[in-house]
UniProtKB/TrEMBL annotation:
This is DUF3450 domain-containing protein. Keywords: Signal. The lineage of its organism: Bacteria, Pseudomonadati, Pseudomonadota, Gammaproteobacteria, Alteromonadales. Residues 1-28 form the signal peptide. It comes from the Bacteria. It holds the Pfam family DUF3450.
Length: 260
């Protein structure tokens, strides 16, 4: 009896131990799950923090890039405004040039008749002027008349040559010059020195210096000089040729024409 009871007690004790052990295992499982969950939460939090850090860095980079783009945009806008002002100014210049081009035809219409009139007036002037360098001056007018009808020469060049001819004629007015040539008197040609004092007077002297003449604009002929003027005429011719020192000399001059 006592043996059975002892065995029963031992069995009962074993059952209690097993029951207790089983109870501890049941309690330990939820704790492990909590620990695992906590670890997962920490892992997820760390991963989330990495994402946050990554997105923050990306946001900072994008913000910096936006600032750079904004600055570049302002710079480009300023440059575009500058270029636009240049284009506008160039357009004004082009418009002005185009207006000038459009007016060229009208200018031609006015200049061409003017040039013909200038050459015609020059021809009449040479014919009415004192007859010095007559052949050279007449040939110059003839060349200008031919030039006006030449297509190969530009309008500007024609106008320039006409002005050159007028400039040469203007210089004759203050020139003191000597040219050798032939003077026709009573149907005979005499080799003489022509001496002109600008457009004031024109003289001629035979090469032997024994005879002198003065051109008469009213009669279009030559009046013989008195012998007393021959020495003065010779002095003037030598001075004009730079063969003598500058000095005064006295010669008669044609009477001024009476105004009509």
């Amino acid at each position: 009896m006592s043996k059975v009871s002892n065995r029963t007690k031992i069995a009962t004790a074993l059952v209690g131990v097993l029951a207790l052990a089983s109870s501890n295992l049941v309690v330990a499982d939820p704790l492990t799950d909590v620990q695992k969950a906590d670890s997962m939460i920490h892992a997820d939090a760390a991963a989330s923090q990495k994402n946050v850090d990554k997105y923050f860095d990306q946001a900072q980079d994008m913000l910096f890039e936006y600032g750079s783009v904004a600055d570049e945009r302002e710079s480009l806008k300023s440059y575009n405004d500058y270029v636009a002002s240049l284009v506008a100014d160039q357009q004004k210049t082009m418009d002005a040039i185009q207006n000038d081009i459009n007016g060229v035809d009208k200018l031609r219409q006015g200049v061409v008749p003017l040039m013909f009139k200038m050459v015609e007036s020059l021809e009449q002037f040479v014919q009415l002027d004192l007859p010095f360098n007559s052949e050279v001056r007449a040939n110059r007018v003839k060349e200008l008349k031919t030039l006006l009808n030449t297509a190969e020469v530009t309008l500007a060049e024609k106008y320039r040559l006409i002005l050159d001819a007028y400039s040469i004629e203007r210089e004759y007015g203050s020139a003191v010059a000597v040219n050798q040539g032939k003077l026709t008197l009573d149907g005979k040609e005499v080799l003489v020195d022509f001496f002109n004092l600008g457009r004031v007077a024109l003289y001629a002297q035979s090469l032997d210096q024994k005879t002198g003449w003065m051109y008469n604009p009213q009669t279009k002929g030559w009046d013989k000089l008195e012998d007393s003027y021959l020495r003065e005429l010779t002095k003037g011719i030598r001075i004009a040729r730079k063969q003598g020192a500058l000095d005064l000399f006295a010669l008669p001059i044609p009477a001024a024409e009476t105004a009509q």
